[in-house]
C-alpha cells in the first residue's frame, strides 16, 4: 500500500511538472498559451503567480528541425505581457520575436496575439519566456527541437529526454520586487530559493515531498535538456557521482565534452547526456550560484532534485550532495566555457574570416546622481544604472520595429557608437567617479544585410566588475574568444578559435574581461541585444541592431501579421 502511494505521488508529480519524454511525440503545430494566474505553494506559503496554462514551468513546445509552429497567446492576466522564443532566429520575421517596445507593443490584459515560430537552423534545446517587465520569473518553458525526419543526433540516441529548468523563486510577488528596486534606485532583493523544474528541493523548508525526481533504469542514457531560466544568477549544476557529457549548447551541437559540473548563464541552454552507470541508489542533482563579485550579495542557497535508480536496493537515507565549484570560482566557470567546441560539420555556415563590420562595446554598471524627490539607495546614495558604450538604453513607449518599418521618427535614433566613445583603462582597479555617469538614449546600430560582424564585449570595472551574459536576438553567433583585462586587438585576435567555436546565442563575458563573437548578419529585422541578467536589463544594458533588407526578394522583412498588438 505504501509503495503504491509513493508511486502515485510520483506519477502525479510528473504530470504536474513535465511528462518524461520519449522521442516520438504527438505532432502539434499549434499551441494555445493562456497567460493567467495560478496559486502555487513554495517555501511553506501559497501565492498566485503568473503562468502559461496554469503551469510552472510552462508547457514544452516540441518541433522538428525547420518546422513552423503557431502559438495563440491569450492574455488573461492583469499585466501587459509579451512572449519571446529565445534563440529562435525567426528568419525575416521579427514581428513574432517578442521583446516589449522593441518588436511589438505588449498584449494588454484580455488581448490576443498569434505568434509564428519559424524554426530554421536550430536543433536541440531552446526556451520561451515573457519579455516584458519581470514576469519571465514564472512565465517560461522549454522548447525541444528534434532532428529533421530521417536524420539523427550526432550521438547515440538516448533512452529518454528530460527537461531541467533552473529558476529562481521569490516569496514576494515578483512585480513588487521589480517595482521596489526601480523606485528606490538600489539593487533588487535576492531570490529566496533556486529551483529545478519549479521545485526548490529538500534542503528548503516544506519542499521535501515535491522535489523533482528523475527515475532512471540502470544502464540507460538520459538526455538532460538544461535551461537557465533564472533572473539574475549564473549557475553551476552537477549530478552526484555522475558525469555529464555536453552534446549541444543553445540548440547547436558541440563536440562531446565530459565534465562533472557545468556552468550555465541566464539565457543559455545545454544538452547533456547522463549515463545511469553507477550503483543503483538515490543521488542528488544540484545547482547553486556562480558569483564573482566580492561585493554583491546573492541567493546562496542550493537547489536539489533526485536521481532515483529503479530496482531492489536499500537506498542511502541521505545521499551525498554533488561537489559544485565554489561560488566565486571564476577559473572553474571559464575553464568550462573555454572547453566547449562546436561541431563544424553541423555549422550553418563557415566561421567568418572576412569581417566587414567591427563593433566594440563596453558593458558597464553605472550610477545616476540623486535628483530631488528621488529615493537613492544605490551606491554612495546614487541610483543604479547600466550601459553599453556609455549609453543607458531608454525603452521607448512604442515599438521600434513598427517605427522602423513605417518610417516613423522620434521613437529611436541611429547613433549607437561602434566603439567606446572614451578609451580608458576599462578594467583598472580605481576609476575616476565622473566616468561612472552614463548618457541616456534610445540609440540603435544599423547594419547592412550580409555584413560579417565582429562584436567585442568589453566589461569594465566602473562601479564594480561582474560577468554579463550577453544575448542577441535574431541569430546565433560564433563565440571565438574571451579573456581577462582589456581587449587587445593585435594580441587577442591571434588567440581566436576560428576552427571549432561554439555557435550560441548568449555569451558570458568574464568579469573585468572581454568576449568576442562573429556572425553573418543575414536576417533582416530589428534585433534586441542585451544583458540577460534581468536587473542589468532594467538598468539599461542593452541596445538594438537593425539589419537592413537585402536586395533579393527573400532578403526582406515579411509583412506584419494582421493582429499585431496596438500600443
Ligand atoms: C488563490 O487562492 C486564493 C485564496 O484561497 C483565492 O482567493 C484565489 O482565488 C486563488 N487564485 C487562483 C488564481 O486560483
Ligand atoms: C524517411 O525514411 C523512410 C524509410 O526509409 C522513407 O519511406 C521516407 O520517405 C523518408 N522520409 C523523408 C521525409 O525523407
Ligand atoms: C526586500 O527585502 C527587504 C529586506 O529584507 C524587505 O524589507 C522588503 O520588504 C523586501 N521587498 C520585497 C518586495 O519583497
Ligand atoms: C567522469 O569522467 C572522468 C574523465 O573523463 C573519468 O575519469 C571518471 O571516471 C568519470 N566518472 C564517472 C562517474 O563516470
Ligand atoms: C549564505 O548567506 C548567509 C547570510 O548572509 C550566511 O549566513 C551564510 O553563511 C551563507 N552561506 C554560505 C554557504 O555561504
Ligand atoms: C528485495 O530484496 C530483498 C533482500 O534481498 C528481498 O528480501 C525482497 O524480497 C526483494 N523485494 C523484491 C520486490 O524483489
Ligand atoms: C573567493 O571567496 C573566498 C571566501 O570568501 C576568498 O577567500 C577568495 O579569495 C575568493 N576568491 C576569489 C578568486 O575571489
Ligand atoms: C571581404 O569582403 C569585402 C566586402 O564584402 C570584399 O570587398 C572583399 O573582397 C573581401 N575580401 C576577401 C579577402 O574576401
Ligand atoms: C561618494 O561620493 C563622494 C562625493 O561625490 C565622493 O567623494 C566619494 O569618493 C564617493 N565614494 C564612493 C565609494 O564612491
Ligand atoms: C589597467 O589596469 C590594470 C588593473 O589595475 C593594470 O593591471 C594594468 O596595468 C592597467 N593597464 C594600463 C595600460 O595602464
Ligand atoms: C559617459 O558620458 C558622460 C556624459 O557625456 C560623461 O560624463 C562620462 O564621463 C562618460 N563615461 C564614459 C565611461 O565614457
Ligand atoms: C500597457 O501597454 C499599453 C500599450 O503600450 C500602455 O499604454 C500601458 O501604459 C501599459 N500599461 C502598463 C501598466 O504598463
Ligand atoms: Cu549584465
From TrEMBL:
Biological classification of the source: Eukaryota, Viridiplantae, Streptophyta, Embryophyta, Tracheophyta
Family: Belongs to the multicopper oxidase family.
Predominant location category: secreted
Keyword Repeat in annotation: yes
Catalyzed reaction equations: 4 hydroquinone + O2 = 4 benzosemiquinone + 2 H2O
Keyword tags: Apoplast, Copper, Glycoprotein, Lignin degradation, Metal-binding, Oxidoreductase, Repeat, Secreted, Signal
Domain Plastocyanin-like residue range list: 35-149, 161-312, 437-550
Signal peptide (residue range): 1-26
EC top class named in words: oxidoreductase
Note on how the cofactor is bound: Binds 4 Cu cations per monomer.
NCBIfam families recorded: laccase
Entry protein name: Laccase
Organism: Lupinus luteus
Gene3D superfamilies tied to this protein: Cupredoxins - blue copper proteins
Domain of life assignment: Eukaryota
EC number(s) given by UniProt: 1.10.3.2
UniProt GO cellular component terms: apoplast
Cellular compartments annotated: Secreted, Extracellular space, Apoplast
GO BP terms: lignin catabolic process
GO function terms (MF aspect): copper ion binding; hydroquinone:oxygen oxidoreductase activity
Names of required cofactors: Cu cation
Function: Lignin degradation and detoxification of lignin-derived products.
Amino acid at each position: 500500500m505504501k509503495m503504491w502511494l509513493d508511486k502515485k505521488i510520483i506519477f502525479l508529480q510528473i504530470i504536474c511538472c513535465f511528462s518524461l519524454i520519449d522521442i516520438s511525440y504527438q505532432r502539434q503545430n499549434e499551441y494555445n498559451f493562456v497567460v493567467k494566474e495560478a496559486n502555487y505553494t513554495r517555501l511553506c506559503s501559497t501565492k498566485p503567480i503568473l503562468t502559461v496554462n496554469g503551469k510552472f514551468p510552462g508547457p514544452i513546445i516540441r518541433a522538428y528541425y525547420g518546422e513552423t509552429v503557431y502559438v495563440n497567446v491569450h492574455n488573461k492576466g492583469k499585466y501587459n505581457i509579451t512572449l519571446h522564443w529565445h534563440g529562435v532566429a525567426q528568419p525575416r520575421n521579427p514581428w513574432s520575436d517578442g521583446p516589449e517596445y522593441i518588436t511589438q507593443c505588449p498584449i494588454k490584459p484580455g488581448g490576443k496575439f498569434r505568434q509564428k515560430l519559424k524554426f530554421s537552423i536550430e536543433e536541440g534545446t531552446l526556451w520561451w519566456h515573457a519579455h516584458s517587465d519581470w514576469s519571465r520569473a514564472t512565465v517560461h518553458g522549454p522548447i525541444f527541437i528534434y532532428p529533421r525526419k530521417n536524420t539523427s543526433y550526432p550521438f547515440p540516441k538516448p533512452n529518454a529526454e528530460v527537461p531541467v529548468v533552473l529558476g529562481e523563486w521569490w516569496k514576494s510577488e515578483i512585480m513588487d520586487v521589480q517595482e521596489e528596486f526601480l523606485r528606490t534606485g538600489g539593487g533588487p532583493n535576492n531570490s529566496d530559493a533556486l529551483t529545478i523544474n519549479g521545485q526548490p528541493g529538500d534542503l528548503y523548508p516544506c519542499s521535501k515531498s515535491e522535489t523533482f525526481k528523475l527515475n532512471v533504469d540502470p544502464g540507460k542514457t538520459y538526455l538532460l535538456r538544461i535551461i537557465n531560466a533564472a533572473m539574475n544568477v549564473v549557475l553551476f549544476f552537477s549530478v552526484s557521482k555522475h558525469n555529464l557529457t555536453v552534446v549541444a549548447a543553445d540548440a547547436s551541437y558541440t563536440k562531446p565534452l565530459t565534465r562533472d559540473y557545468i556552468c550555465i548563464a541566464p539565457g543559455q541552454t545545454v544538452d547533456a547526456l547522463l549515463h545511469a552507470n553507477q550503483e543503483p541508489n538515490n543521488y542528488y542533482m544540484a545547482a547553486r550560484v556562480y558569483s564573482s563579485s566580492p561585493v554583491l550579495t546573492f541567493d546562496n542557497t542550493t537547489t536539489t532534485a533526485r536521481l532515483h535508480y529503479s530496482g531492489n536496493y536499500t537506498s542511502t537515507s541521505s545521499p551525498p550532495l554533488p561537489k559544485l565549484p565554489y561560488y566565486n570560482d571564476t577559473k572553474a566557470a571559464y575553464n568550462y566555457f573555454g572547453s566547449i567546441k562546436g561541431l563544424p560539420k553541423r555549422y550553418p555556415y563557415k566561421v567568418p574570416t572576412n569581417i566587414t563590420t567591427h563593433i566594440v562595446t563596453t558593458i558597464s554598471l553605472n550610477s545616476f546622481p540623486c535628483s530631488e524627490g528621488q529615493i537613492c539607495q544605490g551606491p554612495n546614495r546614487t541610483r543604479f544604472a547600466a550601459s553599453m558604450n556609455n549609453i543607458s538604453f531608454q525603452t521607448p513607449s512604442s515599438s521600434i520595429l513598427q517605427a522602423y518599418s513605417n518610417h516613423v521618427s522620434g521613437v529611436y535614433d541611429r547613433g549607437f557608437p561602434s566603439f567606446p566613445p572614451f578609451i580608458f583603462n576599462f578594467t583598472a582597479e580605481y576609476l575616476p567617479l565622473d566616468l561612472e555617469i552614463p548618457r541616456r538614449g534610445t540609440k540603435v546600430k544599423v547594419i547592412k544585410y550580409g555584413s560579417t560582424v565582429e562584436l567585442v564585449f568589453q566589461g569594465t570595472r566602473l562601479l564594480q566588475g561582474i560577468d554579463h551574459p550577453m544575448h542577441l536576438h535574431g541569430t546565433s553567433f560564433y563565440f571565438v574568444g574571451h579573456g581577462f583585462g582589456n581587449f587587445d586587438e593585435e594580441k587577442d585576435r591571434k588567440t581566436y578559435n576560428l576552427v571549432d567555436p561554439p555557435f550560441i546565442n548568449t555569451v558570458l563575458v568574464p568579469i573585468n574581461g572581454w568576449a568576442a563573437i562573429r556572425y553573418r548578419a543575414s536576417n533582416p529585422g530589428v534585433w534586441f541585444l542585451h544583458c540577460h541578467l534581468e536587473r542589468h536589463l532594467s538598468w539599461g544594458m542593452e541596445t538594438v541592431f537593425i539589419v537592413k533588407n537585402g536586395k533579393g526578394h527573400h532578403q526582406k522583412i515579411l509583412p506584419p501579421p494582421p493582429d499585431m498588438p496596438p500600443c
